[in-house]
Amino acid sequence: MSLTEQAVREALARVNDPELNRDLVSLGMVRRIDIADGAIRLRLALTTPACPLKSVIERDVRAALEPLPGFRGVEIEFTADVAGRARGQQDLAPGVRNIVGIASGKGGVGKSTVALNLAVALSQSGARVGLLDADIYGPNIPTMMGLREPPRVVKNQIVPLEKHGLKMISMGLLVPDDSPVVWRGPMLNSALRQFFGDVDWGELDYLLVDLPPGTGDVQISLVQLVQVTGCVIVTTPQLVSTQDARRGLAMFQQTNTPVLGIIENMAWFRCDGCDKIHRLFGEGGGERTARELGIDFLGSIPLGQNVREGGDSGVPVLLADPDCEQSLQFRRIAGELAAAVSVQNLEGGRRPVEINLGSG
Ligand SMILES: Nc1ncnc2c1ncn2[C@@H]1O[C@H](COP(=O)(O)OP(=O)(O)OP(=O)(O)O)[C@@H](O)[C@H]1O
Ligand SMILES: [Mg+2]
After folding, report:
1. Which residues lie across from 153 on neighbouring strands?
2. Better-predicted residue by pLDDT, 281 or 226
3. In this predicted structure, what is the pLDDT of residue 176?
4. CA atoms within 13 A on the CB side of 65
5. Mutate to test the pocket of ligand 1, among 102, 112, 219 (most ligand atoms within 8 A of CB)
6. Which atom from ligand 1 is nearest to the alpha carbon of 266?
7. Is 231 helix (H, G, I), strand (E, B) or coil?
8. What is the per-residue burial (b if ≥16 Cβ within 10 Å, else e) of 82-93?
9. Is this model's pTM higher than 0.85 or not?
10. Ligand 1 atom nearest to 115, measured from its CA
11. Residue 282 has what pLDDT?
């Protein structure tokens, strides 16, 4: 009996995407089926090029097709079609499929470092990525990327700078280094509005937004101005920092903003002399907080001198030292984040546990 397209499609309808828990056919992932003499060529469009479970999908597809009568082999071509947020008619950045805020309740936990390295990791996976430095009080991203020239304006649109595979815009590029900027509510709101509406972002799969610390006006403006896919909370393992993370979480919940997960930074230090792991800021705080609040834990990043040096030199650690433990974790977490974005867009995400602001 010869193999038919219908038989292949029916078999694929029994294979689930492990992250989204729905079958490949109803998810629209099967883009092409060619059969010649029992040899199948498939094109599958993943919901993100940074898909952490691609090999699982490939294995399950093979297992589903091999028993079919007349099967003589399968070749799978993977492409990606990134699932996007809901965009209304008035959306300020209609070409941007996902906007993800990188937040923390507490300052100095590594938001900017994490935002930049995750952006680079997503870009390396093949996605189109932008980085918006929304820390208008103390913008650090230009230094961390080794950029300082003011952006050009073409046809009334600000052209983002491009480096390390990213498009980037920052208040640090628009105002001179040493001038203190005093932002009042309406000004701040219009500055942020410009960062979305007046910047020529083009088509992007992911725009990561590096937020200032805390739960202030910038965070509120962000979620009011644009439909964000969600926010990520960065914390360090110790108690005060995870308490602050909870506060950040409560704020996003009050504004009905999905929280895509928690990332723990500065999780441990590995001694380069004896290879022993030291947990300077305690152990497992980020994971515990995530579990208690019913939010995904996206992963931990260890301390590393190379991370700090990457920030100071303008070459992110992921590019300067791609095989180190920190870079490995950044890539892994970027995959988890991309998967959480897909789940959010296709399934409405997982519901976090309701918490209130007083419960720190
Ligand atoms: N995993 C790490 N290992 C070593 N140094 C790190 C790590 N993560 C961040 N740093 C360093 O810690 C400092 C603070 O990081 P960063 O500026 O990213 O934090 P932030 O949360 O954005 O701070 P702010 O609240 O001021 O915006 C920087 O010097 C950075 O290089
Ligand atoms: Mg910062």
Report:
1. 158
2. 226
3. 67
4. 26
5. 112
6. 1
7. strand
8. bbbbebeeebbb
9. yes
10. 18
11. 75
Residue 82 Cα, ligand 1 centroid: separation in angstroms?
A: 29
Dist. CA 279 → ligand 1 center (Å): 17
Q: How many CB atoms are closer than 10 A to CB 103?
A: 29
Closest by CA position to 238, among listed 303, 298, 294, 296: 303
Quote the pLDDT of residue 357: 45
Query: How far is Cα of residue 139 from the mean position of the Cα atoms in its chain?
Result: 20
Q: Indicate which ligand has the atom closest to the C-alpha of 311.
A: 1
For 5-80, give the CATH class.
alpha beta
Q: Phi and psi dihedrals of 136, rounded to 5?
A: -75, -10
Residue 174, CA atoms < 13 Å, CB-side half-sphere: 22
Q: How far is the CA of 22 from the centre of ligand 1 (A)?
A: 38
CB 321 within 8 A of CB 285: no
**CA-nearest residue, atom 26 of ligand 1:** 108
- The rounded Å distance from CA 303 to ligand 1 centre is 10
Using a 6 Å CB cutoff, which residues line ligand 1?
A: 104, 107-113, 135, 138, 140, 213, 265-266, 301, 303-304, 307-308, 311
Average pLDDT, the chain: 90
Please tell me the distance between residue 142's alpha carbon and the centre of ligand 2 in angstroms.
11
In the chain, alpha helices (H): 5-12, 54-65, 111-124, 141-145, 171-174, 185-197, 217-225, 239-254, 285-293, 305-313, 317-320, 325-347
- Fold (topology level) of 99-359: Rossmann fold (3.40.50)
Asked if residue 125 has pLDDT above 70, the reply is yes
Q: Report which protein residue has its CA nearest ligand 1's atom 3.
A: 303
Please name which ligand lies nearest the alpha carbon of 305.
1
Helix (H) or strand (E) holding 162: strand 161-163
Other CB atoms within 10 Å distance of the CB of residue 26: 12
Strand 269-270 and strand 277-278: the pairing is antiparallel
- Domain borders along the chain are 5-80, 99-359
Output the furthest CA–CA distance in the chain (Å, rounded). 77
Q: Which helix (H) or strand (E) holds 74?
A: strand 73-80
> Mind listing the pLDDT tens digit for each residue in 224-252?
999 999 999 999 988 777 788 788 888 88
